[in-house]
Amino acid sequence: MLLPIGSVVLLKDSNKRVMIVGRLQRQIDSGILWDYSACYYPEGILKTDELFLFNQDQIQVVFFIGFQDKEGIDFQKVIESKYKEMKNGSI
Fold first, then answer.
1. C-alpha to C-alpha distance for 2 and 4, rounded to whole angstroms
2. Rounded CA gap, 23 and 33, in Å?
3. What is the pLDDT of residues 15-49, one digit of tens each?
4. How far apart are CA 62 and CA 81, in angstroms?
5. Cα 43–73–9 angle (5° rounding)?
């Protein structure tokens, strides 16, 4: 299950927390599909070239799980379906 937008995590081999700002992100130059994009926490997005792309298995600690409501939970179902399709190479 993908974490919601706004979740704050620490990545392996890192000492600075990041906040998830996007899910299912495709890197433009390589075409690689990443689970998440994130910015530094608590600074936020200061420059667009400072966004980080990473996968779930790179998360060491989850400090905060982002806001969730009915709309977010409904969208989570859609994105989980797309996630499976994209990871299987269907999309």
1. 6
2. 10
3. 999 999 999 988 889 989 999 999 999 999 998 78
4. 23
5. 30
Q: Which two tokens stand for residue 80?
A: 């989980």
Which residue reads 């982002």 in tokens? 66
Evaluate whether 35 touches 41 at the Cβ level (below 8 Å). no
Helix, strand, coil percent values for the chain (each to nearest 5)? 25, 35, 40
Decide: 67 and 4 in contact? Cβ < 8 Å.
yes
Closest Cα to residue 54, out of 27, 72, 78?
A: 27
Contact 21, 39 (CB under 8 A): yes
To which H or E segment does residue 70 belong?
A: helix 70-87
Please give the Cα distance from 91 to 6 (Å, whole number). Answer: 26
pTM of the predicted model as reported, rounded to 2 decimal places: 0.87
For residues 55 and 67, what is the distance between their CA atoms, to the nearest angstrom?
Answer: 20
